[in-house]
Amino acid sequence: VQLQASGGGLAQAGGSLRLSCAASGNHGNYAMGWFRQAPGEDRELVASMIGGGHIDYAASVKGRFTISRSVAENTLSLQMNSLKPEDTGRYYCRIGQYWGQGTQVTVSS
What we know:
Elements: E1 2-6, E2 9-12, E3 17-24, E4 32-37, E5 44-50, E6 54-57, E7 65-70, E8 75-80, E9 89-95, E10 98-99, E11 103-108
């Protein structure tokens, strides 16, 4: 299984970005999630989806970010609204034991 993340870029505070993670191969119904890592910081879980149903968010993004999955397109997405400068970082998707290469998100104030 290979994961290809896309959709990162530069946004202004208050703006939106949508990240996508395209999966190749059959990954089954593993736990899925988006993580982010800011420079000098540990990688942290942003949003997760387990069993295709149970969804959880980090407190810092709850109400602003939405994780979703398209079975037909075999993709995992993260809609990010009301972006803040502290959302800046490299975002990684993960499905089961597999990681994407990451996509950079930079939010300017």
